[in-house]
Structures are given as C-alpha cells and as structure tokens.
User: Fold this.
Amino acid sequence: MNRRGRAVAAALLAATATLGVIGAPGAAVAAVAAPGRGTEQQARAWLPQPTGLYPIGTTSLQLTDDPRDDPWKPGQHRKLMISFWYPTTRPATGNDRAPYMVPAAADHFGNAGSWGQRENGFEPGRTDWAGIRTHARADAPALPGGKRPVVLYSAGFGDPRTWGTALVEDLASRGYVVVTVDHTYDASEVAFPDGDLATSVFPALMARPGLDMGALLRKTLQTRVDDTRFVLDQLAGLRHDAQLPAGLAALLDLDRIGMVGHSGGGSTALQTMHDDPRLKVGVNLDGQLHFSGPDGTGVQLPLPTVAEDGLTRPFLLMGTQESGSGSYHQQPGWDALWQHSTGWHADVTLTGSRHGSYTDAQSLLPQLARQGAVAPTTLTDDVGDVRPDRAVLATRSYVSSFLDRWLRGHDDHLLDGPSPRFPEVVYER
Assistant:
C-alpha cells in the first residue's frame, strides 16, 4: 500500500540503475490493441536478478480451510493460494521462466479499477504484466541436500502475493524455501486453478458512507493472522503431499520458520509471531502497528496485542521516509513494541525511500515510468528518490542478514550497527 492507499484509509493500516534488470536492455515495448483506443505500446519490465548461488523453482497450490467461514464472503469456505520458491537443480531460461502473474490475474491487476492499479498509479492497460517473467522454473524438482529454513511472505493490504517477488526470489536463491500467501478478497485479485478470480472487496468497502476504518483494519489483520496460522498448519501435512514437485516436501524444516511481510504483511508477520510460537523470527517492512480511528485518522486503543505485549523472539523493523514511518520513536505501535520486547530487535530506515521501496514497485515502476506508463510524480510518491539498485540491494542484504543470523546461525555482522556498506541506511538498536 502506497501513499495514496494510506490516505484512502489512513488507509488499510496507514501502512500498515542496474542490479540485473533495473534498466534492462532498452526496456522493449510491445504493440497491443486497447479497447476503444486503437493500437498502443505496452510497457515491458524485468525483475532484478537474484544474487544467491542456487537456481530457483516455483510451484503454486490451493488450500481450503473447510471449517472456517470466509470472513469477507459468508457462506463460503475460506480458500487461499500459496506459492513455493525454492532451490532447484538447473536455472530457468527463455520460456522456461515462470510468469510473474498468470494471465487472468495480470489482466485484472493492470486494468482501471483494480486495487493494484489504483494503489500504484500506473496507467490502465499500458503495461504487459503477463509478459513479465520470473527467474524460476515452474514445478521444477527441488535441489537435494537436506532440510532448509522456511520463510513465509505476506504482501501489503490489497497487494497480491507476487508484489514481493524480487525479494522472494533472492531468498530462494540463497537457499531458503519461501512460501508466499495470497489473502483472498484482500489482495487485488487471486486467480484459482478452476478459473475463479477473486477480486478485492476493499474498493467497494471504501465507497461505503460511514465506514468504520478502525474496525475494518482490525478485521483485516485478524483475517490475515488466521490465514497465516492455517498455512502453518498445512505445511506439516504438505511434507507428505504428492502434489508438490519432487523433493520439495523433504526440504521443509518446520523447526526453523520465519516470516517477512510488507506494510499490512509486516504487521501480520509480527502479530502472528505473537500469537503462534512456530514463527521463530519476523521482519516488518514498513507495516504500522496501530489502528486508526473510525474516520481513518488518529490512533485507536488498544493497540494490536503484539505492540501491547512485545515479543520475546528476534524481529527486525525496516522503515522508510514516508510520512508516518521512519524511526520507531515516531510510530506509536512500533515504539510500544520496542519498549515491551525482550527478544533481539533492531530498526533501520532507508534514506530517500517511500512505502513502495520494499516491494517490486522499486524495480518495476522506474522502468515503466521511462516508457510513459507511470507519471513522474506517481513514481516519486511510490518509491521516493533513492537509487533503485541501492534500495533493492539494501532490502535484500538486511533481510537475508537477519534471517541468516537467526535461522542459520550465520552472522555477517551487518546488523551489529551502522554499516559503511550502506551509508543511506539509518540504524537504531
């Protein structure tokens, strides 16, 4: 959720160039027919190359929580889509590279009125979202070699699980098994194998007069925590699931599980840590830990229980220079969490960044802006003026350093204090 999304709700948690492809060769465009607008050039973009040693595989799976009524669609079972990203045996090339979004999701995401288009400000119909490729091979066999730590990833309120793919791929290339979670009817759109496309309820809810924003935020966070705990429940059974690619089930080390999330996903990560001891560590990428009042402003008490009680296990806060973010001192929920926590914790802020800087917006939107699919002012609002390659590198480096330290016992000492490698990162401990 970007600056506009925060304004919409204070909004759904009030936030809750190179490096491989940032500026990939010529940023080619493709001619397409837009309804009623003739033939236009669709912008193309590339994700940054992963930096780890391992080629990447990916596979997707539908999960259905039969006992749970869907909180957004009463009378339906709660169903989710998840994806696994993991080390594999050989790299993907050409058409072997899995798509960034399946066609139905890509079509909706890029069109006017979708939550994704509305929040990120790109021109409707101007980007070939279906043409973006990952660096992963679909349904590839897993790399043998024993169990690996598992990391769950949750995107921001209203964002699809794909919106953090650059970070997720990098973690998988470093040897983690990453599970990305789509929160159905929250995410801009979720495409299911049977052809069902579940779109976000947020645009309609936001249009209702007298909406109690604080109540909506509480419901959204609780739904996401319930989703995450259900996924954790399912992972144990999936170790014996024949639907998974060869060898993937054997990789899952369920004694070493962490979670990373952006915006509302970061809030979800830490609240789930509080509620469920199976999560050993968590990273919150610019997700606030307070609820707004009914009108979308102010701070409504009580705070989320994670902020009220604190955490006994390690966590990392990563803030931006977005209004309402930055140092934990400036955020009531982060400050309460800090004061009440006994586990290891640190806080870093990326100078020049904005709320979208920890998402794929940081690498994709500058490319789209160069092709006229994103306005310059929108670009600045979304990702600030930090260099895209530095923002991507900093995000990957700090997240992987934290996870390596606490899930693998490998300490590169980046999180010991301010680092000359990243002068643009402000460190607090």
